[in-house]
Amino acid sequence: MQIIIRILFSGLFVLTFYSCNHLDKETEQQEGNDCKKGKLKAIKDAKNSHYEIISYGLPDYPDWNFQKFYENYVEKKYGIILGNGGCVLYEEKLCYTDKMREIVKKKFGENILIKSRKLAKIEFKRKILLEIKNDSIFTSVDTLPFFINNKENLSQYISNRLKNEKKLNGRTQVTFVVEKNGDLSNINLKPRIENKFDQKLIELLENMPNWNPGIYFGEKVRTKIEFPIILN
Predict the structure, then answer these.
(1) What's the CA gap between 215 and 220, in Å, rounded?
(2) Rounded to the nearest 5 degrees, what angle is found at the Cα of 137, between the Cα atoms of 216 and 202?
(3) Distance CA 117, CA 91 (A)
(4) Which of 100, 133, 166 is the last residue of a domain?
(5) Fewer CB in 10 Å around end: N or C, the chain?
């Protein structure tokens, strides 16, 4: 029986990346190839205290939890809305964003976004350290948990101990929490494959050697792990 394991850490995203290209000229004309219109709209929005700064392209933030916290922080403190417009690029949108950045810097200070990001990081760290103290479970961390046992990685460890099981076909999603001491808890399989095999797999996970726990802000944390097991 062949066992295939692809590990995904809950809260992280696996994306197929495509390059962000400018729209073709025909689409630009249909959608809005008017820089002046974009600038005027930015001025109008700012007069109504609506400050929206949109970035374009595929976002790649090292910590999505912090990014969400930062965006909420900036909006609550300054009324500045930060967002991402994806890959739909045309002149009117770009000119709107450039003008809005200019207005925001003039109103709040040249380094407002850099300054607010540093302040948000301080507040975010306080929040996370309190959650760590209260034994919260995290889905995004600085250093992901990992398992190595006598040069066996996770896939090898499980495959080597289930290789004599009867041949089965199917797929199950495994979730569990890596505790601060490296133990596994809250083990769950969904959907189930076959009662005897499911129980064998759960027992195997329960009795695994300790993992290296996740690290967040220099502290060991409880981290949720998720991955599929494919049998064929």
Answers:
(1) 5
(2) 115
(3) 28
(4) 133
(5) C
Cα 178 to Cα 175: distance, rounded to the nearest angstrom: 10
Residue 196 token pair: 């005897």
Q: Select from 125, 126, 229, 131 the least CA-distant residue to 180.
A: 131
Q: 182 with 104, same domain? A: no
Please tell me the total count of domains within the chain.
Answer: 2
Residue with tokens 């916290």: 69
**Closest by Cα among 32, 176, 5 to 90:** 32
- Interatomic CA distance for residues 230 and 232, integer angstroms: 7
Distances (CA, A) of 32 to 23, 24, 86, 102, 174: 11, 12, 16, 21, 47
Tell me, what DSSP letter sits at residue 3?
E
Which pTM does this prediction carry?
0.74
- Classified as helix, coil or strand, 7 is coil
Contact in structure between 212 and 146 (CB atoms under 8 Å): yes
In a domain? residue 6: no
